[in-house]
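In pairs, describe these two lines:
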Amino acid sequence: MKCAIVDYRTSEEEVYNLESLGLKVLLCPPSNKLYKAVNGHPDMQIHILSNNEVIIQREMNKDFINNLKIQNLKVYLSSNNLETTYPKDIILNALNLENLFLHKLKFTDANLINKVKHKRLLNVNQGYTKCSTAVISKTAVMTSDISIAKTLNNEGIDVLLLPPSNIELPGLDYGFIGGTCGLIDEKNIAFFGNIHNYIYKKEVLDFLKKHKINPIYLSNGPLIDRGSLFIV
């Protein structure tokens, strides 16, 4: 059974709807090193290397680590500890595509870099690279960051650039598109909230249709940044 890793504050409705898709839900616990708005966001504490390998921040809750291992996942620890202030909070928040790895590389965790060094490593200005980017397919993404969009366009990736607004993130002014969703499989993407409540719904729905991706809505509320939906 595949697992969905989500923020510990994910609603009961969203958890139920994920379970209805045949997924086992694992709640990412809070980190006392991160500020409250993002302290349970998976994309701040976890990086998915492959279908069966993850790297997590080294002070992660031990019970959560055991739950990952029970799912037959290989778990690696970060070299550095997370810290509250930027850029020491972004060590794992990178975008990892099939042959490309994007991040503010100067601040990427050394153990993570070591795991992806066989890929093309691309530096971008946006340190919150994963939260800023939603992966749609191997060759398509949505992002709210201009530097990510330019870099990926130059690599032949189809990019939908969206303004960073109209996405909820309690405690902050707004969230990012990458934090609202995650691919369930090659044909389906699940959103925390409903795209029809999003000001750029037409652009997103047209882009998903172009790439033959079906949207699934985990609730009928506004889009909310929960720090990405990770499927392993």
About this structure: DSSP finds six helices and 15 strands in the chain. The two ends are 9 Å apart (CA to CA). Residues 3-231 form a domain with the L-arginine/glycine Amidinotransferase; Chain A fold (CATH 3.75.10.10). Helices lie at 12-19, 42-45, 62-70, 110-116, 146-154, 201-210.
